[in-house]
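Hi V.,

You were right to ask for the full record rather than a summary. Here it is.
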Amino acid sequence: MSCLFGYCGSPADDLLARMAALLSHRCPSGWERASGVTATGETVAIGHGMATWNRESQLARHGHDLLGYGGILFDHDGVTGPDDSRQGIAERLLAALGREAAAESPLENLTGAFVLALSRGDSIYLLRDPAGVKVLYWTVHRGRLLFASEIKALFADPTVPRRMRAGALPEYLTFSFVPGANTMFEGIEELQPGSILRFRQGRASVRRHFRFEELEAQSPRPAEEYPALVRAALDRSVAECLAASPEKAPAVFLSGGIDSSAVLAVAAQQKPGVSFPTFSVHFGPEYARENDFVQLMVDRYRTEHRWLEIRPTGFLEQMRDIIWRLDDPIGDPVTVPNYLLAQAAAQIADVVLNGEGGDPCFGGPKNLPMLLARLYGPLPGEPATGWLERNYLRAFQRCYQDLGALLDPALLREADGDETMIGLLEPFFRAEQPRDFVNKLMSYEYPAQGRQPDSGQSGENDFGAWRAGAAAAVLPAHHRNQHELSAKPEAGRRGGKKRS
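Predicted structure:
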């Protein structure tokens, strides 16, 4: 399923190979490496796990400069120049960057589902795609930068400490995931969507370059134009994902909902005559299900459908492996069904299309209670400050209101309790942009709820799981319920950090 990993700093024997070994489930087709030194003499090593759907090298070297990426780049010709079959994309991209005085600006113009590492001059840069489809974790320890698609690979350096961050547990119990750049581990961060990291002389700085909230200032379009814009973006997204593996039909996950059904309909329109393999889950005849809606799509598009019945006896023996793959844990019940779906799809497909991510992109499930909270104001007796943030935390309907009963008081004090939880949300609610309240909610839903696609769940294969419905652009207030898609992400762990 491809991965990216590496380090910059003092040389370390076999460190890259040890990282690759911990990511072997992502490298069924092997891995490649490139190494060199920066202008200041620091060792740089980049590894890339090969995807089943793309055997082309995604590493390049020119002089002292190195580049590697994992995933897929869309519309790269604007940066690399016209296609040249004699060179791979990585080679063309590195050559194009070499002609630029500064590397960051052209890097910021790249779109797709990818993570990228570039060593140039005295710096190494890490980049994550605007929608956060692919994931990249990093840490700086003893002056050395380490980065990888999964946290476990960072521990290939035995000196990296394995300490749980005190605030991670109340965050996880509140959201069912750990939001933002922090992870469960102290000192280890997740590079945020649309962000670029620069590591130079032992120090790292991170800047978010993809600021979709600025689109709110654009002149509004007539309301009747937005459905066509959404359709055009969906058409383009599905086309780009289909192009990732043109010789082999992708699988499609069907839930019976609008998002996955729309993705299948567009794919079938673009590939007439292709019988797509489709997958759905159910939990037995005694439980509510949407099988009738799934069957409507199966019959209409004549897919090769497979039903997976999910029972505890079918996955309990795999629970340890499932948890091991979730370095950044997800407490959503859909995690196990998604894993089993991916495992089954990996047997017949290299890429999967689905509708994961539609909820946070098209409104988000927290919007209605938050609009009511803002309308009615703080509860009787509630402090005048932080009440809006507390309402948002309660809207997840997890364990926020029970943290005092669940956790040791000493741990809550170490984590700074409620103040830290509110502090996670204040930057979004207090920011000058976007101004409209629904857009403020969307500005949090997009990075925090749509950040966990790249889970590594398929095991043997790059099941890819392209999420065609994700990144919605924030729009002017009076058009806020019409969404123009601004990026084309991949799917994965859940529809929301519920992250790839």
